[in-house]
Amino acid sequence: xxxxxxxxxxxxxxxxxxxxxxxxxxxxxxxxxxxxxxxxxxxxxxxxxxxxxxxxxxxxxxxxxxxxxxxxxxxxxxxxxxxxxxxxxxxxxxxxxxxxxxxxxxxxxxxxxxxxxxxxxxxxxxxxxxxxxxxxxxxxxxxxxxxxx
Length: 149
Known about the structure:
The chain is 48% helix and 7% strand. It has 6 helices and 4 strands. It has helices spanning 4-30, 40-44, 51-63, 69-75, 81-89, 107-117, and strands at residues 33-34, 92-93, 131-133, 139-141. The model is unreliable at 123-138 (pLDDT under 50).
């Protein structure tokens, strides 16, 4: 015979289990996943992205990071406007990636920098001035002049 206490415990357990499950789903849905840094598992957590698509995304971004969602859709095979909207609604984002640069300059970079620092700015070699990538406005050298390609 099932007593009232066991039924209350079962209902409380069921309610707690469902509440925790809902909380986990809501937490995952609100966490954006960056296409430039996500792992295969993170990409597969997006609705509609399976193992093959996740692998294509990673292979494409290894050649060059994505600039934005439009760039993502243009470069990843099989992703059109509808799928892009689906992925975006599920939390896929593309954050801008900073240009790859070493955190500390190498000894040859320090020597070149010291040699150029002794010259007046107009005499600094164009080729030795490191390029600095800007989010807007294109590439500029360290003196702020527009860099030519």
